[in-house]
Design a protein that fits this description.
550 residues, mainly alpha, Transcription Regulator spoIIAA, 2 domains, four-stranded parallel sheet, two-stranded antiparallel ribbon
């Protein structure tokens, strides 16, 4: 059931429409330069980015399982789209996008959405950071205005070629790019609510036109371009071609599924709502098929645009649908002005996008994780940059699975050596834990018991704990004596829960940590944010004192 139906059934008033109208207009202003920049970086024309944002963006909002999801082209697709067009041509991309759409529809109907959320965080962060590096290096040529006829596709060769071409740097282009970048960074720091991307692009376009600066623009590189929703030529379909394109189609489907669900989860954390993952996958599949049908690019949920939509006051999916309508209006009415947009300013926009995608803080945080998680992170990152995105995902997931199996074998040994502790274990049944109901919790205090290895496959369940508790408690006791091991994704889930508690004014007490979780949580800075207790009884006494001081 699409969230649009749910919202309309709840009752949709004019005040809701007014809020969605403002939010849709706000996010369209953000999406306008991004859609064109991402299309150019993908090796195609800027109009295809806007076509994608209009068609796919409308359908993702109308049919999706999230109230606030904004869909369109994203940085995650730049690398795979560029490679598909380079090897198979644009008709190959159309076919791969349609195949990816069908894969997503099938995944949603088979209810695979729940399992996609369990992709380990080091894998996601590793290939996302790798994509960010590739996007950043792909923009150096336009940022500096280099004279480079045939830019190599391979990373090492590209860096070498860019280095050799540095003497051809165009000063005017560099000034336009650097000025755009500086303005975006300044506005983000001083005026975060202003549309920095659009302001920088408009300002750069005006200055280039006013002073006649000799720098490449959309008009000079794509002369005579007119946006169109005409159906592209039907691609050549054969079994041999389908087999050749399947890895790319799978990568597009994987990226669309993972990024859309991550974006929906971010929206949930910002609003307290819950998305429908399988409905979201079906919507992504339909949107990608439709985008391919009108000559667009692959699309998925965009985290930054979705967050902008929420902060702008969106009430439901109609905001996302209106964002697509506003972009369509721009294409119909104001398309000729895009000819004056300098490519250097769009390069600056994409450098900021790449920086945001890199999630450098999360990368550094994961580098404090256990050795196995660090290895998965770095190997996935290196393969993404140096080899291929599909290979990076496959190897990363396999390595994470092997690491998990190794940890499970360790967990069995740890559990076999557990000592009997009076608080949690009875003498007659070493595996039977005393139910929490036998303890009398004071008013305003809630408790949650976590049993077993806390790894990436179960980390998402922690986020449901506060939802099950109901009313926001003043103190939350997390009983972790039965957790023998924890990995980086488990730590991340625990951090998210602690941050949610902090926002709600709930204090967290952690009891009875085993050696491995204690070491990992200490190394990754989590223990400094909570209160520790030696056992559950002591935690209850501490909670009573905390409630009294409220």
């Amino acid at each position: 059931m699409p969230k649009l139906v749910t919202v309309l059934r709840e009752g949709y008033r004019f005040a809701d429409f007014r809020s969605d109208f403002i939010a849709g207009l706000t996010v369209s202003i953000v999406a306008l330069p991004l859609s064109m920049a991402l299309a150019i970086a993908s090796g195609t024309t800027p109009d295809k980015g806007l076509v994608t944002a209009v068609v796919a963006g409308f359908l993702i909002s109308a049919l999706g399982g999230s109230r606030f999801q904004i869909g369109g082209p994203t940085g995650a697709f730049v690398v795979v789209v560029f490679n598909v067009i380079a090897v198979h041509g644009y008709d190959g991309l159309v076919l791969a996008s349609a195949m990816a759409g069908l894969l997503l529809i099938g995944a949603g109907l088979l209810r695979v959405g729940t399992f996609i959320k369990y992709i380990p965080e080091p894998v996601v962060t590793g290939f996302t950071a790798g994509i960010a590096v590739i996007i950043a290096t792909s923009q150096i040529k336009d940022f500096l205005g280099l004279s480079l006829e045939n830019e190599p596709a391979e990373f090492v060769e590209k860096i070498w070629a860019l280095g050799e071409a540095l003497p051809s740097t165009t000063v005017q282009t560099l000034l336009v790019a650097a000025g755009s970048l500086a303005l975006i960074v300044y506005l983000r720091g001083k005026r975060p609510n202003w549309p920095g991307f659009l302001i920088a692009v408009v300002a750069a376009s005006f200055l280039v036109w006013l002073f006649g600066l000799p720098t490449d623009t959309i008009g000079s590189r794509f002369a005579g371009l007119e946006p169109s929703f005409a159906l592209p030529a039907f691609p050549d379909v054969s079994m041999e071609r389908l087999v050749a394109l399947f890895p790319s189609a799978f990568t597009i489907a994987f990226l669309a599924g993972v990024e859309s669900l991550l974006s929906a989860m971010v929206a949930d954390s910002m609003t307290g709502r819950r998305h429908r993952s399988n409905c979201e996958l079906v919507a992504q599949g339909v949107a990608n098929c439709a985008s391919a049908a009108v000559g667009g690019l692959p699309a998925t949920g965009a985290i930054a645009r979705t967050a902008t939509n929420i902060r702008a006051g969106a009430r439901g999916p109609i905001a996302g649908m209106l964002h697509a309508v506003f972009l369509l209006g721009f294409m119909v009415v104001a398309w000729p002005v895009t000819a004056y947009i300098p490519l250097a300013s769009l390069a600056a926009v994409l450098l900021v996008v790449a920086w945001n995608m890199s999630e450098i803080d999360k990368f550094r945080h994961l580098m404090r994780a256990p050795l196995g998680d660090r290895a998965v992170l770095l190997i996935t990152f290196a393969l993404t940059v140096m080899v291929d995105l599909t290979v990076a995902i496959e190897v990363g997931v396999v390595l994470a699975a092997v690491l998990f199996m190794h940890r499970m074998s360790e967990a069995v040994e740890v559990q076999a050596d557990l000592h009997l502790v009076e608080e949690d274990v009875s003498d007659t049944s070493p595996r039977e834990f005393v139910p929490m109901q036998e303890y009398e919790l004071p008013p305003g205090v809630a408790a949650s018991l976590i049993r077993g290895p806390f790894f990436f496959g179960v980390a998402m369940r922690l986020g449901e704990t506060l939802d099950r508790i109901g009313a926001t408690p003043k103190v939350l006791i997390l009983r972790l004596r039965a957790v023998p091991i924890i990995d980086a994704t488990g730590v991340s889930a625990l951090q998210n829960m602690i941050e949610r508690c902090e926002r709600n004014g709930t204090k967290v007490i952690v009891t009875a940590l085993q050696p491995q979780p204690e070491r990992i949580l200490g190394d990754m800075g989590v223990l400094a944010r909570v209160t520790r207790a030696p056992d559950f009884a002591a935690a209850i006494e501490m909670a009573k004192e905390m409630v009294k001081t409220e």
